[in-house]
Specification:
Blueprint: E1 10-14, H1 21-32, E2 35-38, H2 39-52, H3 60-69, E3 72-74, E4 80-82, E5 85-86, H4 94-103, H5 107-121, E6 126-130, H6 133-137, E7 143-148, H7 151-164, H8 172-185, E8 198-201, H9 207-221
Parallel strand pairs: 1-6, 1-7, 2-6, 7-8
Antiparallel strand pairs: 3-4, 4-5
Helix pairs in contact: 1-9, 2-4, 2-5, 3-5, 7-8
């Protein structure tokens, strides 16, 4: 997809679970005064909405028909509305994650949400995080970042996050390994760093350090689009 030449800055931040994408992306967007888009929340919202509607989430045909008829909107905070309903309060549960792990691998769902994501970012001025932003959604993004960390580091972070929220933190390592397998082996939009992405290992860096590295990449690779932006 070729984006308009006069659009604003597009920063794509990809990576697997547990690398700190959400926190880093939010902070980078705040520092640069850009919009933040969490595409993972979109996949979870659609999965929950489809399940609520009685859709067989294992069926490509049923999901294709659902995506063709559901209305999509966004509230003032950027939360996705499906059929006029905001599902953001229900998407951080184990059930939502399990549903999204199924639907996110389905071609009709990915095609539908990639189109939504491109519309959200077509004017630029956005930090978009996910797993295929720099490779599929915006392959011509001004800056592409791929965050990574070892399996043990990511499992430890996710387990702590769940424990802090009072949720079950068992089998975290196994679940992350399974999610990694699905993400990297799926035929449609597999998780992989774009050839021109700046790869940052977050295992030995704190959040502030990762944000600083991302802002450094913006300064170094955004060119004219980044001029005049306060990179701190």
């Amino acid at each position: 997809m070729n984006a308009p030449k006069d659009r604003g800055l597009v920063i794509a931040i990809d990576g697997p679970s547990g690398v700190g994408k959400t926190t880093v992306s939010r902070r980078v967007a705040e520092r640069l005064g850009l919009r933040y888009v969490d595409t993972g929340a979109m996949y979870r919202s659609l999965a929950v909405a489809a399940n609520d509607a009685g859709i067989d989430v294992e069926s490509d045909g049923a999901l294709r028909a659902y995506c063709a008829r559901v209305s999509v909107g966004y509230d003032a905070s950027g939360n996705m509305l499906l059929g006029g309903v905001d599902y953001s309060g229900r998407i951080r549960t184990e059930e939502a994650g399990a549903l999204a792990s199924i639907t996110s691998a389905k071609t009709p769902v990915r095609d539908f949400l990639v189109a939504c994501q491109r519309r959200l970012g077509e004017g630029g001025g956005v930090v978009m995080e996910g797993r295929d932003i720099g490779t599929v959604v915006f392959p011509d993004a001004d800056v592409k970042i791929f965050l990574d960390a070892s399996h043990d580091v990511r499992a430890g972070r996710r387990g702590k996050e769940l424990a802090d929220k009072g949720g079950p933190s068992t089998d975290v390592s196994r679940k992350i390994a399974e999610r990694d397998r699905r993400d990297t082996e799926r035929k449609n939009s597999p998780l992989v760093a774009a050839p021109d992405a700046v790869v940052i290992d977050t295992g030995s860096l704190g959040i502030d350090g990762v944000v600083a590295r991302v802002l450094e990449a913006v300064r170094g690779r955004a060119g004219k689009a980044a001029r005049g932006v306060d990179n701190g």
